[in-house]
Specification:
CATH superfamily: TusA-like domain
CATH topology: Translation Initiation Factor IF3
Strand order of the largest sheet: 1-2-4-3
Oligomer: single chain
Helix content: 25-40%
């Protein structure tokens, strides 16, 4: 299981979403993407879209105004 990190600090929507979508093409079952962002709406947008597509997601605020969005391929 691989884990990929995307630093999207300072990037506004839809850039973080686009970067996640591009990396999804490389994921095998069990692999995860961790995206770090300071754009709160990116957390919501990415989480909702990835859940609809069947990925497991989680959001954690790691510092004031900085979140990590994790996306894991489960199927």
């Amino acid at each position: 299981m691989a884990e990929y990190f995307i630093d999207a600090l300072g990037e506004m929507c839809p850039v973080p979403n686009i970067r996640i979508r591009e990396k999804l093409k490389e994921l095998d079952i069990g692999d995860a993407i961790i995206l770090e962002t300071d754009h709160s709406c990116a957390c919501i947008t990415i989480s909702n879209e990835m859940r609809r597509k069947g990925y497991k997601t989680a959001v954690k605020e790691i510092d004031t105004g900085i979140w990590q969005v994790s996306v894991r391929r489960v199927k």
